[in-house]
Amino acid sequence: MTTLDEICHWIDGRPLSGGRPLEITNPATGRAIRRLGLADGDQVRLAIDAAQAAFPAWRDTPPAKRAQVMFRFKALLERDADEICRLISEEHGKVLEDALGELKRGIENVEFACGVPELLKGEYSHNAGPRIDTWSNHQPLGIVAGITPFNFPAMVPLWMAPLAIACGNAFILKPSEQVPSAATKMARLLEEAGLPRGIFQVVHGDREAVEALLDAPQVKALSFVGSTPVAKAIYRRGADHGKRVQALGGAKNHAVVLPDADLDNAASTLIGAAFGSAGERCMAISVAVCVGEETADALVARLAEQAGALKIGPGTEKGLDMGALVNAAHRDKVAGYIAEGEAAGAELALDGRRHPLVGESAGYFMGATLFDRVTPEMRIYRDEIFGPVLCVVRAASFEEAIELINAHQYGNGTCVFTRDGEAARRFSDAIEVGMVGINVPLPVPVAYHSFGGWKESLFGDLHAYGPDGVRFYTRRKTVSQRWPARDSRERAQLNFPSH
Ligand code: NAD
Question: Known catalytic residues?
Fold first, then answer.
């Protein structure tokens, strides 16, 4: 029997083993490939101690020097991109090209962090009052933590850590225990880029490690990305402890297809948005709302043909469209939703359970699934399935489509397909969703905007990365300064100062 390689925590600039054992499985084969220790409070405390020791010197390091670490980090991520993508694919299941896509979007955030001297310049007012100058600057918080989901092992940690670090904080990452290797690899690369030890640390673990971070008074802020029930619980517990928390949750993203849309383009981009990464994306389109019966008939025919032709297999093989789902329980949950949708009366236009790999392979595969005539009370419509399942809802009018989306509990992303500028403008104004696409089915903002949903998709005031990220990872200090003339004699003034 071969022993499995261990993925270690990264604490105080060194790998550290320990914790409750967990085997990491390759979803494409169902076989264990690595092992991991799930941290308890002891490992978390070691990381906090190291961060506390390292923070003062890093806070006082000029932002331009902190940015230089980010420039080197970007180059190292690009140098080792193939290795990182292989680690992601082996643990998550997604295809290599898709892993490279997430890594590139993550690197955009490192590039944004390279501009930190400009971002932290602050504001200045000369003569805000008589001989008074006032300025505001943005100071780091201290120790901040990030808790990340399984579906973006590189990109979501890169939404958080580079900017938090560039702003002068010490960052502790608790990545998803299902996909741990990319995080440890990034820790090694930051070390190579010259980051002082204790400024970026990785604690592998589950709920126990997260709760230790939430309860530690030294941790000043916490960024979370994951499912809505956990996001809510973390937001509450963090707030109880007086922490700054941003908690991004789940989603059910609708695309509205209007009768005037270019249906060929709408269908092919919807296929990518619904089935890319096997639907395990928080911005995946999982509902297509077709306005009018003719639009629906034409779209469903195109979607069924293209979805049925998708190439599925082990993510590490080249030229495939979709890999396996992350684990057996999740695959079974998705299969359960398909059975439930069928029983509830939705029309199964394409049944992913019939794909030859389902059942034949030891991997956790599920074929692309298309439901037509889904109605809002069905669970397949209400719940986030997070798998390769696209539901088509037929709406009588554009207004009905907008009302449907606005009534949904989630508000992460949405999109409209149309050639009508007026309709597009009405949609973007009226829709209660945080990120909107017009003929863009995955409107994930670039790194110099910010990412975040509305309603049950985000708890907190600030979105992730970009300008909101700078606000989240810093606190504003406003200084007013006055130098009276040497020979001036001033009387005591008891009224509230005004000019
Ligand atoms: P998850 O909520 O199960 O886990 C997320 C993180 O929280 C992991 O690190 C996990 O170890 C930890 N965790 C799990 N249960 C916990 C608990 N009870 N207490 C404390 N910590 C806990 O999510 P997941 O399955 O890893 O990821 C998929 C979910 O993430 C989907 O709902 C998806 O929509 C969402 N997601 C959202 C965004 C976004 O930007 N809104 C982005 C990516 C993923």
Answer: 282
Nearest-CA residue for ligand 1 atom 13 is 207
Residue entry with tokens 């504003």: 476
Atom of ligand 1 nearest to the CA of 147: 9
pTM of this structure: 0.97
Q: Which is nearest to 441 in space by CA: 416, 411, 410?
A: 416
Atom from ligand 1 closest to the CA of residue 176: 9
Helices H, strands E: what count in the chain? 17, 23
Q: What is the pLDDT of residues 283-308, one digit of tens each?
A: 999 999 999 999 999 999 999 999 99
Strand partners of residue 448? none
Tokens of 131: 């001989």
Domain boundaries along the sequence of the chain? 5-249+457-479, 253-438
| DSSP states of 439-488 | S-S--PPPTTS-B--EETTEESSS-BSHHHHHHHTEEEEEEEEE---TT-
Half-sphere exposure in the Cβ direction for 26 (13 Å, CA) = 18
Residue of 94, 173, 210 best suited for mutating to test ligand 1, as the one with most atoms within 8 Å of CB: 210
| pLDDT one-digit tens code per residue, 111-151 | 999 999 999 999 999 999 988 999 999 999 999 999 999 99
CA 412 – ligand 1 centroid, Å: 15
* Cβ pair 327, 387 in contact under 8 A: no
Please state, in angstroms and rounded to a whole number, the distance separating the CA atoms of residues 365 and 347. Answer: 22
The predicted structure's pLDDT at residue 1: 53
**Neighbouring residues of 412: CB distance < 8 A, sequence distance ≥ 6:** 250, 251, 252, 253, 282, 283, 433, 434, 435, 453, 454, 457, 458
Question: 185 C-alpha vs ligand 1 centroid, how far in Å?
Answer: 21
- The residues near 82 (Cβ < 8 Å, ≥ 6 apart) are none
Q: Indicate whether residue 151 lines ligand 1 (CB < 6 A).
A: yes
What six digits make up the tokens of 151?
């579906």
Decide which of 3.40.50.720, 2.30.29.30, 3.40.605.10, 3.40.50.150 is the CATH code for 5-249+457-479: 3.40.605.10
Residue with token string 């690009």: 78
Classify domain 253-438 at the CATH class level.
alpha beta
How far, in Å, CA of 37 to CA of 8, rounded? Answer: 7
Counting ligand 1 atoms within 8 A of each CB, the residue from 105, 150, 214, 384 with the most, and so the one to mutate, is 150
